[in-house]
Design goal:
Shape of chain B: elongated
Largest sheet of chain B: none
Oligomer: heterodimer
CATH topology of the largest domain in chain B: MetI-like fold
Order of helices and strands of chain B: HHHHHHHHH
Distance between the termini of chain A: 23 Å
CATH class of chain A: Alpha Beta
CATH architecture of the largest domain in chain B: Orthogonal Bundle
Number of helices of chain B: 9
Order of helices and strands of chain A: EEEHEEEHHHEHEHEEHHH
Distance between the termini of chain B: 33 Å
Largest sheet of chain A: 6 strands, mixed
Radius of gyration of chain B: 24 Å
CATH superfamily of chain A: P-loop containing nucleotide triphosphate hydrolases
Number of domains of chain B: 2
Bound molecules: adenosine-5'-diphosphate, magnesium ion
Strand content of chain A: 15-25%
Number of domains of chain A: 1
Helix content of chain B: over 70%
CATH superfamily of the largest domain in chain B: MetI-like
Chain lengths: ~280, ~260
């Protein structure tokens, strides 16, 4: 199968007052249609930068991203983003927030009634139909994130990009949202790239876990295939040997191979090791 | 003062009545005669002056807002525009109304020459002076409000590929609205203060002139009348502010930004 999304030799150098800062180097990744991929790595390693490059919000300084045979040069609704802090427009209700996106994407192809139905349908998908006329201020953090997901899904994206979507939520709410996300992924078969720093979440949700080395010049250290059958049940998985092994591997990568060293030396050895391993 | 006002109104009514009678009788004698209507020329009373001042301050404020809001949005959106305008803004912002007044008077006198003036020159000078002085808070606050639109919301707009117009209308304007209103309230306060000073200095009709006339007048009741005028000026300033607050409450989504 031909990859839907391809990152080739993506590198990112930021100009900072202290000179150039190479955040990413030689990031290569192929993602197939319908795949659920997690990006995991220590904070500040460059996960968001990768995602923003795929989204088109940042322009890579080296290499490039190809989605469905087209190079990514600017942001667009076919690469919908779910931001960490929901980023709903606070002056619009949940419904209006989703509607704004739907109107923008489908204004030529859908009638008014169809738009309304499509908005409602997407809010139902994330179980937010009951509160769709509330303002973001009037709903909980988890609900806001649900609306954010509904807004992204409503654009019918080719790839759904999520930057630590559940990072700001409590464990219980997070579990609920993970279940919802699995349900939606099973139902729609959307291709998803999700950033997380939660190992359990990564193993539970992903087909593949992409582990990133520490920056500067961060790149992909290892890629782990999670060969667990779907649908997955968090309770049954808790002592499933495959689940436990995957979890172990990710933890090993994060806390042995890529142990976060503070303060960071200019070019730490662990980092180059990771690069070599991949090469 | 109320009595005075009523007396003056009665006189004015009487004047118009007499004029009507005169015109009617003259027309009866010579039908080809074009009647000339003259307006009443009695001195304006305290209440007339309040009316004049209110109209002037509102016109000046509206004019200022109409310039400051679009300009503020423009400056907030474009860092080039900001760099270009900032020195000018910094230079003109601290200019006292007393310095603007002669300039505005000269310009208005030179430019606004018609035989049949729609509005009085004095009204225009007062209004432009007010506008020039109360422009700045709205301008600055709008610009800051626009600059501080959250990066996340801008990203949403980019992902949705909103065009420039919808971006401003759907994202920037609502985001900046609370800041804009803070600016507008400051502006209206300044407008009212500047107007009174301008009226005093230029002898343009309004409350300021009333106070100055009373001061020059030196009657035994003058002190009392000035006191009343000062209190009324304060009261009107307060009411104007309340009005803006109500407007802000009605329009702004972020209720926490509406302080007392
Ligand atoms: N606009 C920028 N300018 C300079 N440095 C940046 C910029 N954005 C990110 N960085 C740096 O790039 C690195 C990766 O950042 P980021 O992708 O946000 O990390 P993560 O999401 O993995 O926590 C960090 O060291 C950060 O300081
Ligand atoms: Mg991040």
């Amino acid at each position: 199968m031909k990859a839907l999304l391809e990152l080739s030799n993506v590198g990112m150098k930021f100009d900072t007052p202290k000179g150039q800062f190479e955040a990413l180097k030689d990031v290569n990744l192929k993602i197939e249609s319908g795949e659920f991929v997690s990006l995991i790595g220590h904070s500040g390693c460059g996960k968001s930068t990768v995602l923003n490059i795929v989204a088109g919000l940042l322009q890579a300084t080296d290499g490039g991203v190809i989605l469905d045979k087209q190079e990514v040069t600017e942001p667009g609704p076919e690469r919908a983003v779910v931001f960490q802090n929901h980023s709903l427009l606070p002056w619009l209700s949940a419904f209006e927030n989703v509607e704004l996106a739907v109107k923008q994407v489908f204004k030529k192809t859908k009638s008014k009634a169809e738009i309304r139905d499509w908005v409602a349908h997407n809010l139902e998908l994330v179980h937010m139909a009951h509160a769709m006329h509330k303002k973001p201020d009037e709903i909980s953090g988890g609900m806001k994130q649900r609306v954010g997901i509904a807004r992204a899904l409503a654009m019918q994206p080719q790839v759904l990009l999520m930057d630590e979507p559940f990072g700001a939520l409590d464990a219980l709410t997070r579990a609920h949202l993970q279940d919802s996300l699995m349900e939606i992924h099973a139902q729609l078969g959307t291709t998803v790239i999700m950033i997380t720093h939660d190992v359990d979440e990564a193993v539970l949700l992903s087909d593949r876990i992409v582990m990133m080395t520490n920056g500067p010049s961060a790149t992909i250290g290892e890629i782990l295939d999670v060969k667990l059958p779907r649908p997955r049940d968090r309770l049954a998985l808790a002592d499933d040997p495959t689940f436990v092994r995957c979890r172990q591997q990710v933890l090993q990568f994060l806390y042995e191979k890529q142990r976060k060293v503070e303060p960071m030396p200019k070019r730490n050895s662990a980092n180059t090791e990771g690069v070599r391993k991949r090469a | 003062m109320l009595d005075e006002h009523q007396a003056s109104r009665a006189k004015e009514a009487a004047f118009h009545e007499r004029q009507e009678k005169y015109i009617a009788s003259r027309l009866a004698q010579q039908p080809e005669w074009e009647p000339v209507y003259r307006s009443y020329t009695g001195a304006p009373t305290f209440f007339d002056q309040i009316g004049t001042s209110l109209i002037t301050v509102m016109s000046g404020f509206l004019l200022a807002s109409m310039i400051a809001i679009p300009l503020g949005i423009f400056i907030g959106l474009s860092s080039t525009a900001h760099a270009a305008m900032n020195p000018l803004i910094q230079l003109f912002k601290p200019v006292s109304p007393l310095a603007w007044l002669p300039l505005v008077t000269m310009v208005v006198s030179a430019v606004y020459v018609t035989d049949d003036p729609l509005v009085a020159k004095s009204f225009l000078t007062s209004m432009f002076t007010v506008s020039l002085c109360c422009l700045w808070p709205t301008l600055m606050n709008t610009a800051v409000g626009v600059t501080s639109v959250s990066q996340d919301l801008t990203n949403v707009s980019r992902v949705l590929r909103l065009n420039a117009m919808s971006h401003v209308r759907k994202i920037v304007l609502p985001s900046a609205l609370p800041m804009m209103f803070t600016g507008l309230r400051l502006s209206l306060g300044i407008a009212w203060m500047v107007l009174i000073a301008a009226e005093m200095l230029a002898q343009n009709p309004g409350l300021g002139k009333f106070v100055w006339d009373e001061f020059q007048n030196g009657r035994s009741q003058s002190l009392g009348r000035i006191m009343v005028a000062v209190i009324v000026i304060g009261l009107i300033g307060f009411l104007l502010d309340r009005l803006m607050l109500m407007l802000q409450r009605a329009l702004v989504w972020d209720k926490s930004s509406v302080q007392r």
